[in-house]
């Protein structure tokens, strides 16, 4: 089951800070799907309005399903977006598992942001983050 995870910078840039896919040859193919999903993320955020400003996390759930993939989204308070693309045939993943995976990602991303040697907005190059993402993705596959 192919899986892709992408961390996208806050607006207005919206460029990827981190992209990982299993298997790795699908990575470029998913770029279009991820960029298309950013429009859906922005629509969901604006539709929710001010009601969710006080919440600590913005799990957006299923952004849109395609014939082959399901695209899920999550946004932090600082408007950093996490996008996950999973195979539609993967019925083992429930909403709670996806939500839990996004929380883990958010916590690891927060650890990176706390590193004094990391410049916010730079691509993420962290062995600890890579290991966490790889272990999480292997559970899904």
Automatic annotation (TrEMBL):
Transport is among the record's keywords: yes
Xref: Pfam families: Sedlin_N
Compartment list: Cytoplasm, Perinuclear region; Endoplasmic reticulum; Golgi apparatus
GO terms (BP aspect): endoplasmic reticulum to Golgi vesicle-mediated transport
Keyword Endoplasmic reticulum included in the entry's annotation: yes
Any one of the GO CC terms: perinuclear region of cytoplasm
Superkingdom field: Eukaryota
SUPFAM superfamilies: SNARE-like
Keywords: Cytoplasm, Endoplasmic reticulum, ER-Golgi transport, Golgi apparatus, Transport
CDD domains from the UniProt entry: TRAPPC2L (cd14854)
InterPro entries to which the protein is assigned, alphabetical: Longin-like_dom_sf, Sedlin, TRAPPC2L
PANTHER family documented for this protein: TRAFFICKING PROTEIN PARTICLE COMPLEX SUBUNIT 2 (PTHR12403)
Family: Belongs to the TRAPP small subunits family. Sedlin subfamily.
UniProt protein name: Trafficking protein particle complex subunit 2-like protein
Lineage: Eukaryota, Metazoa, Chordata, Craniata, Vertebrata
Name of the gene this protein is made from: Trappc2l
């Amino acid at each position: 089951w192919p899986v892709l995870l992408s961390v996208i910078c806050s607006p207005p840039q919206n460029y990827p800070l981190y992209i990982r896919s299993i298997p790795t040859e699908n990575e470029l193919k998913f770029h279009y799907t991820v960029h298309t999903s950013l429009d859906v993320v922005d629509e969901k955020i604006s539709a929710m309005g001010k009601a969710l400003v006080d919440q600590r996390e913005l799990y957006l759930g299923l952004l849109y399903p395609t014939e082959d993939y399901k695209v899920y989204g999550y946004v932090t308070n600082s408007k950093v977006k996490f996008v996950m693309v999973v195979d539609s045939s993967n019925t083992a993943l429930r909403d709670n598992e996806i939500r839990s995976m996004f929380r883990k990602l958010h916590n690891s991303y927060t650890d990176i942001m706390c590193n004094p040697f990391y410049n916010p907005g730079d691509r993420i190059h962290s062995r600890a983050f890579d290991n966490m993402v790889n272990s999480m993705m292997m559970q899904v596959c």
